[in-house]
Amino acid sequence: GQNIDQPTEMTATEGAIVQINCTYQTSGFNGLFWYQQHAGEAPTFLSYNVLDGLEEKGRFSSFLSRSKGYSYLLLKELQMKDSASYLCAVSRNTGFQKLVFGTGTRLLVSP
Amino acid sequence: GAVVSQHPSRVICKSGTSVKIECRSLDFQATTMFWYRQFPKQSLMLMATSNEGSKATYEQGVEKDKFLINHASLTLSTLTVTSAHPEDSSFYICSARGETGNTEAFFGQGTRLTVV
């Protein structure tokens, strides 16, 4: 089995920086994804980490520590449109390398 | 990125009827497709993994006779909710990955199912 935990909700103000954490316990870990999902829409890909370290992509960065079972998504220069749910998902190297999602974090960005 | 098309986007059906949801990869071959269910304000729950040409692998607690999955070709997987009940009302999303395996999963637009 696996446990993938994230904070349920976070709030931040426009222009600020926010860090969304994800901790996981799983066997056969084979990579971690972050997705953004607006209400009523499908998730969209943000980042992928398989090795330890920081991956930067514009305003978004993602960090992974495999030994600690920990990842975070860092959002800089927050914009109102960043209000969404952020989902971390673990890829398991078992069978079909299925993607299992964490509990999700709802981020509200206020003016 | 690759395109995954899911149809219909919304469906309303009566209790006791069956509903079929299609998931197509439009510009790549998806040997594996995944079906998720999402309740309001919750994360995606993996229901089953669909592999072309073989039986789907269901997650624990998911009724395989109720949620029929068929992966007829490398670009099409279907989910049929049989004898639907109001508690089956949910957002269903499919995703597909290419043959290289550990790459991002591309998601369909999702299907909002309402059973009345």
SSE diagram, text form:
The complex is a heterodimer of chains A (111) and B (116).
Chain A: E1 2-5, E2 9-13, E3 18-26, E4 29-37, E5 44-49, E6 53-57, E7 60-65, E8 70-75, E9 84-92, E10 99-101, E11 105-110
Parallel strand pairs in A: 2-11
Antiparallel strand pairs in A: 1-3, 3-8, 4-5, 4-9, 6-7, 7-8, 9-10, 9-11
Chain B: E1 4-7, E2 10-13, E3 19-25, E4 32-38, E5 44-51, E6 57-58, E7 67-73, E8 76-81, E9 90-97, E10 106-107, E11 111-115
Parallel strand pairs in B: 2-11
Antiparallel strand pairs in B: 1-3, 3-8, 4-5, 4-9, 5-6, 7-8, 9-10, 9-11
Q: Gap between N and C termini of chain B, in Å?
A: 36 Å
What overall geometry of chain B do the principal axes of the alpha carbons give? globular
| Global Rg of chain B | 13 Å
How many angstroms does the end-to-end distance of chain A come to?
41 Å
Count of helical segments of chain B?
A: 0
Structure description:
The complex is a heterodimer of chains A (111) and B (116). Chain A has 111 residues and is mainly beta. Helices cover 0% and strands 61% of the residues of chain A. Chain A contains no helices and eleven strands. Chain A has strands spanning 2-5, 9-13, 18-26, 29-37, 44-49, 53-57, 60-65, 70-75, 84-92, 99-101, 105-110. In chain A, the strands form two sheets. In chain A, strands 2, 4, 5, 9, 10 and 11 form a six-stranded mixed sheet that branches. A five-stranded antiparallel sheet of chain A has the order 1-3-8-7-6, with no helix packed on it. In chain A, β4 (29-37) and β5 form a beta hairpin. The radius of gyration of chain A is 14 Å and the shape is globular. The termini of chain A are far apart. The model of chain B has no long low-confidence stretch (mean pLDDT 90). Chains A and B meet through β4, β5, β9 and β10 of A and β4, β5, β9 and β10 of B.
